[in-house]
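Loading example: each entry is read as two labelled lines plus one structure line.
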Amino acid sequence: MTIEKETLLLQGLGRNDRKAVEAIYKDNFNMVQALVIKNNGTSEDAKDIFQEAMIVLYEKAKSDSFILNCSLSTFLYSVSRRLWLKRLMQQNRFLIVEESDNELVKVDDDIEDHERINTEFNMMERSINSLGEPCKSLLDAFYIQKRSMQEISASFGYTNADNAKTQKYKCLMRLKKLFFSQYKNYEP
Amino acid sequence: MIDDFKLLEDVERYINGQMTPDERVQFEGLRKSNPEIDQLVVEHTFFLHQMNRFDDMKKFKSGLNDIHIDLAEKGAIKSTRLKGRAKVIYLVNRYKRVAAIAASIAGVTALTISALVWSISPTTPRKEIAQLNRKFNELNQKNAMLGKQINEVKDQIGTAPAVTYKTGGTGFLIDAKGLLVTNAHVIANAKYIAVQNSDGKDLKVKIVYVDVDRDLAILKIEDSAYRAPKSIPYSIKRSNADLAEPVYTLGFPRNDIVYGEGYLSAKTGFNGDTLTCQIAIAANPGNSGGPILNHNGEVIGILSTKQTSAEGVVFATQSKFIYSALNQLQKDTAYQKVKMPSTSSIKNLDRMQQVKKISDYVYMVKVN
């Protein structure tokens, strides 16, 4: 695959463009699946590992400054291999069997970044889930769907936008409290 | 509290660049002179960034799942199903003896218990369970007669009589090519059956499989107006659901799709029936045949009957029987390629988004 094409795919991935993601997925999944299955994993494990590697790549691709200094498949293979090795080590198994002609790059930093982002993601998920309704939908409507306060107050049945705003403020404070109470205890 | 409220609003407007230049200069002055406010800006920027990234990641993850199912169905990536099954067969062979012994013990125990229960339980009339198919409007005798007369007139002028559907239930797709599951009792004694999609359009269907014991039927949409979706968002669970698991259902007790939620209250159905399970959920006639889903977006059952002597006690056929029904069906070569969705692509979505995705795959079943 040419460098131009890879760059285009990577840019598409950064925008979460379905076609680009699908193309990368299609070209690389079998390779990672072969590795995982050869090393005592199931196809379900392979799916998990590969998707996690895709997320690592996605995080990289989103930042403008990112330049990939190897091919997409080398990167995905290296990350998947590292992630699977880690999983195996948790089960006290260390050996990894693989084809010797696969290129590898160093991905330690990338995996470290990813683990931090992942932890933060889980903290936010836990916080949002323990928030309950209507807070969850209210914050989602304002901060994620970016709907206007007028619209929100109408669809949630508040009498005016100010009341909706007050409620949104209370919800936000609760969410921040939930999130930061976990974040404070977190040592990266 | 009012001050904090106002301050946070300002901070947000500042972060989002919604302040006028004057306000901005003033606010920056405030930031410099007040370290607490400065800290609030930093913290809130970080927090908003976390929220956006969370949403972004959630969307990306669910996209990946969609793509995986898509590619696996197209055969563009190596199908994972075979390996899963090979493993099951391996395990079955390995534990055959143990399983046989366990099964025979369980069998003897079950027989003893059911004999005991039978001998001590009072005989309950079958009426205690009501099937939840619904009668369409109050077609009384007079209307029927009128309809008949109209049809006679129509016949005379040579047009086909329009079908008036009298009863109905719910059904849901298990295969993108148009296979639908519903209850056998919904389509019992049917002369005409149609399903209505979310656009309100009637589609012709044919019955391809009926199992009265398990109250299960499979229909196939055969209509040129049917647009096959790429894949099914939910999966069908092979194993039993857990007690107290929160569940929800979608169905057509009226002309609009209706959502209801509840929980799995017992692993067996009415009088210990092992084919079904008991669910505490509000259900009405018309809900029959609707999917029961868990929070991962996996179908765990098909809503079928309710106990008339108690409120909110509903029984559902366990989802694993969809697999056995399909196995029977696949003896016919025409259906050998049918693949049921084994992974749910809506696992990480919240309930509202799940329902939004699922509702296009749930159909109203109309019967005359």
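Helices of chain B lie at 2-15, 21-33, 35-74, 81-94, 96-120, 141-157, 320-329, 351-358.
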